[in-house]
């Protein structure tokens, strides 16, 4: 393959930009048209989600992993290098968005001409605004029957204070007016502030793992140049590497002789582990140290779940699969865990429920792994009361990611629960229902604003555990699918929390232990008991399902026993014969109940619920409580 000469692109002819938008507003379709217009890919009907390379992305129609492509575009007699970074739109992957924006000087903010501004549009705009990037509003899908670009222009003017004259109206699907987007990128986005003559300073903004070549680091060069054979140093680890290959993504990897200041590309330097290519790290030439770039805030897990192999003999295979997948997804945190019922496994931290589902789906598709997932929980905090405990934990405030390890009230001063600032955008006819839903979830209203004649933006402070499982589904159901929701971390608040145990025939099932707010304990306990009653098949003996807070039973359901008539074969005869049969049956039931008590955890783990996705039944067993 002929190597591209990147020296023909001076800094003033380079533009680094990103496409940001709400889910399904047409980011990836616009990226496809831009790739076609610049000749990066051929024009064919098969060009759908070209930058969405993962199977899960194509199946779900969402972007999960940010992707980069270098476009070469001739305009007014000059050749420009446009580096496009396609970003995810779902709230769970906003970490990917913020990383991508660090390598850019401007963004295309895509808004659907039919749906208008949605919650994630607002969140993504403020990510770009805080990063002080130039914003070009693009109104997409003007070809739709119900499209109303003028209404959307007014929304953009009111919410973002951007003049309607700056909006570009396009149809990415048909390619209408897309050329003007490229011209606006050149005219309205500044070239990077980079200096060719300074020593190398490169920011690592993403990384992937190749089993043959090791880590492939995506880098943005702010100063200097880098080529094959250079010795580079990581500012984070202070390790030295020799560069084996540099190049640009076009959209596939294309090696070049050299990368220069202002350019975005990839670099392979014999790193064996993605942890060596730390996101936000600065790379510089050996013996030419520079001031490191300000890094990113590391991704903070919002949801934790236990993951175990269905069969313990598969533990090593699953361990290898989890390690490989976390190499490509550094935002997943992994802690070793052990369960009496399920054996050895892990406690994994995710950015949200969709992130957890996608990770799980990738495990199945890419590594053919069968796993058991426990109920997702959020990270609580406890402020310890005794100096003895503080010495034991080595800190006064501890984080609890496993409900089974929730400390007793007598040992703590107070409990803290994570809260998020949620943004809901909805048609005004659904305001009443949505406000009632938010109140039921212990949310506190912070703001309310009409963004046009019939659309409202609501801001609420939510406890994270109230929205983590089914809030989004309830919101969509109440609003006939029209409301959108987004949230951002807002710290912790004090809360009256209790640990709720689930017992089967008097034995605690560790995997179903959950932490709930004191006021909701009875409701949640009753719901779990009813769910278990419907899920557990009947036995030859009675199964008592109980929810308990401390020593107090707050809810109970009973799975009735099958009745087996042992006297059916007796036609008269001595009463002692009948008594003997009934006594033997009672002893048999007692033995069965004892055996069930010993194995009830495994029993529930395998029987509670098999998770289903839109594609059908998965191989994943979800131990679900709510």
**CATH C-level name of the largest domain:** Alpha Beta
Strand content: 25-35%
Termini distance?
56 Å
The unreliable regions are: 49-53, 605-626
The CATH topology of the largest domain is given as Rossmann fold
The number of domains = 5
User: Could you tell me the number of beta strands?
Assistant: 33
Count helical runs.
Answer: 14
Helicity level: 25-40%
- Based on secondary structure, the structural category is alpha+beta
What can you tell me about this protein's structure?
The protein is globular and about 110 Å long. Strands 11-10-16-7-8-15-12-13 form an eight-stranded antiparallel sheet, with helices on one face. Strands 2-3-1-4-5-6 form a six-stranded mixed sheet, with helices on both faces. The C terminus is likely disordered. The protein has five domains: 183 residues, 3-Layer(aba) Sandwich (Rossmann fold); 85 residues, Beta Barrel (Elongation Factor Tu (Ef-tu), domain 3); 71 residues, Alpha-Beta Plaits (2-Layer Sandwich), CATH 3.30.70.870; 116 residues, Alpha-Beta Plaits, CATH 3.30.70.240; 110 residues, 2-Layer Sandwich (Alpha-Beta Plaits). Helix content is 26%, strand content 34%. Strand 10 and strand 11 form a beta hairpin. The chain is of the alpha+beta class and 626 residues long.
Could you outline the blueprint of secondary structure elements for this entry?
Blueprint: E1 14-21, H1 27-37, H2 55-60, E2 67-75, E3 78-86, H3 94-101, E4 106-112, H4 119-130, E5 134-140, H5 149-160, E6 168-169, H6 179-188, E7 201-210, E8 214-223, E9 225-227, E10 231-234, E11 240-242, E12 245-249, E13 253-255, E14 258-260, E15 264-268, E16 282-285, E17 303-309, H7 315-328, E18 333-339, E19 343-350, H8 353-367, E20 371-374, E21 380-384, H9 387-393, E22 397-400, E23 412-427, H10 431-440, E24 444-452, E25 455-463, H11 464-467, H12 471-478, E26 484-495, E27 497-504, E28 507-508, E29 514-517, H13 521-535, E30 543-549, E31 552-559, H14 575-607, E32 610-613, E33 616-623
Parallel strand pairs: 1-3, 1-4, 4-5, 5-6, 20-33
Antiparallel strand pairs: 2-3, 7-8, 7-16, 8-15, 9-14, 10-11, 10-16, 12-13, 12-15, 17-19, 17-20, 18-19, 21-22, 21-23, 23-25, 23-26, 24-25, 27-28, 27-29, 27-30, 30-31, 32-33
Helix pairs in contact: 7-8
């Amino acid at each position: 393959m002929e190597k591209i000469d990147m020296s023909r692109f001076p800094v003033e002819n380079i533009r680094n930009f990103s496409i940001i938008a709400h889910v399904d507003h047409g980011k990836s379709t616009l990226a496809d048209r831009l790739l076609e217009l610049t000749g990066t890919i051929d024009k064919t009907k098969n060009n759908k989600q070209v930058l969405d390379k993962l199977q899960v992305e194509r199946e779900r129609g969402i972007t999960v992993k940010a992707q980069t492509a270098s476009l070469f575009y001739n305009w007014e007699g000059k050749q420009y290098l446009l580096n496009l970074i396609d970003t995810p739109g779902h709230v769970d992957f906003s970490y990917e968005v913020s990383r991508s924006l660090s390598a850019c000087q401007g963004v295309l903010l895509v808004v659907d001409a039919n749906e208008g501004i949605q919650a994630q549009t607002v969140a993504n705009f403020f990510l770009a605004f805080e990063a002080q990037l130039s914003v070009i509003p693009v109104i997409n899908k003007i070809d739709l029957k119900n499209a109303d670009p003028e209404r959307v222009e007014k929304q953009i003017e009111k919410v973002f204070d951007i003049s309607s004259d700056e909006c570009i109206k396009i149809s990415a699907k048909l390619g209408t007016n897309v050329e003007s987007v490229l011209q606006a990128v050149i005219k309205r986005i500044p070239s990077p502030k980079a200096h060719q003559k300074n020593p190398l300073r490169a920011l690592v903004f993403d990384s992937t793992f190749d089993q043959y070549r090791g880590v492939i680091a995506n880098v943005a060069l702010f100063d200097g140049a880098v080529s094959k054979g250079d010795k580079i140093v990581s500012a984070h680890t202070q390790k030295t590497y020799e560069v084996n290959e540099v190049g640009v993504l076009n959209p596939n990897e294309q090696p070049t002789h050299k990368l220069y200041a202002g350019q975005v590309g990839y670099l392979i330097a014999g790193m064996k582990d993605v942890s060596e290519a730390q996101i936000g790290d600065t790379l510089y030439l050996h013996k030419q140290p520079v001031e490191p770039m300000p890094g990113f805030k590391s991704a903070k897990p919002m949801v934790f779940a236990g993951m175990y192999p269905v069969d313990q003999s598969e533990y090593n295979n699953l361990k290898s699969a989890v390690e490989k997948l976390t190499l490509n997804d550094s935002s997943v945190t992994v802690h070793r865990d052990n369960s009496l019922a399920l054996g050895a496994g892990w406690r994994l931290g995710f950015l949200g429920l969709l992130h957890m589902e996608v990770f799980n789906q990738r495990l199945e598709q890419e590594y053919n792994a069968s796993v058991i997932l426990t109920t997702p929980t959020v990270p609580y905090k406890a402020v310890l009361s005794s100096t003895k405990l503080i010495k034991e934990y080595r800190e006064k405030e501890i984080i609890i990611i496993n409900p089974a390890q929730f400390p007793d009230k007598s040992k703590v001063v107070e409990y803290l629960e994570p809260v998020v600032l949620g943004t809901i955008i909805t048609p005004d006819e659904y305001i009443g229902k949505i406000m009632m839903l938010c109140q039921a979830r212990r949310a506190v209203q912070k703001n309310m604003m009409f963004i046009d004649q019939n659309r409202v933006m609501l801001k609420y402070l939510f406890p994270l555990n109230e929205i983590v499982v089914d809030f989004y589904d309830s919101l969509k159901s109440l609003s006939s699918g029209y409301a959108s929701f987004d949230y951002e971390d807002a710290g912790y608040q004090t809360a009256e929390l209790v640990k709720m145990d689930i017992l089967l025939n008097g034995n605690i099932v560790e995997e179903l232990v959950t932490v709930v707010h004191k006021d909701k304990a009875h409701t949640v306990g009753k719901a779990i008991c009813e769910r278990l009653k419907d899920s557990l098949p009947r036995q030859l003996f009675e199964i008592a399902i109980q929810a308990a807070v401390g020593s107090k039973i707050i809810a109970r359901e009973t799975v009735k026993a099958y009745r087996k008539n042992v006297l059916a074969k007796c036609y008269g005869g001595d009463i002692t014969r009948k008594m003997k049969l009934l006594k033997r049956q009672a002893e048999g039931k007692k033995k069965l109940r004892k055996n069930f008590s010993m194995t009830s955890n495994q029993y529930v783990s395998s029987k509670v619920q098999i998770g289903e996705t839109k594609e059908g039944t998965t191989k994943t067993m979800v131990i679900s409580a709510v």
